[in-house]
Automatic annotation (TrEMBL):
Residues 5-106 form the Rieske domain. InterPro entries: Rieske_2Fe-2S, Rieske_2Fe-2S_sf. Transmembrane segments: none annotated. Gene3D superfamilies: Rieske [2Fe-2S] iron-sulphur domain (2.102.10.10). The keyword Iron-sulfur applies. This is Rieske (2Fe-2S) protein. Keywords: 2Fe-2S, Iron, Iron-sulfur, Metal-binding. It comes from Thalassolituus maritimus. The keyword Acetylation does not apply.
Length: 111
């Protein structure tokens, strides 16, 4: 069964930044880019390791792509598709998300 859950206010993730969350044991992160919000599971498809450099740091230095901290693979923010690195052609696992009333909501599996 899918359940919608409120993560935080949109203002908690400034435009051009990212933030990680742990929802009932599921690590995810969101990226706020040019007014849009994207959410993914916090797992690199290559090594199944967390993506961030340090807490809430999922983006490259230009804040144009998601970057894996372990091997530097680069992923498109809009789709999670890997364009550079050992997992080129693979994608991050998307988590459905939307902004409602100034809050970020995700839709995830529930027990």
């Amino acid at each position: 069964m899918k359940t919608a859950r409120r993560l935080c206010q949109l203002t908690d993730v400034p435009d051009g930044h990212s933030k990680g969350f742990n929802i009932e044991g599921q690590a995810i992160f969101v990226v706020h880019q040019r007014g849009r919000v994207f959410a993914y599971r916090n797992v690199c498809p290559h090594l199944n390791v967390p993506m961030e450099w340090q807490p809430d740091e999922f983006l490259d230095s230009d804040k144009r792509m998601i970057q894996c901290a372990v091997h530097g693979a680069l992923f498109l923010i809009e789709s999670g598709y890997c364009v550079s690195g050992p997992c080129t052609g693979q994608s991050l696992t998307t988590v459905l998300c939307e902004v409602r009333g100034g809050d970020i909501w995700i839709t995830c599996d529930s027990d």
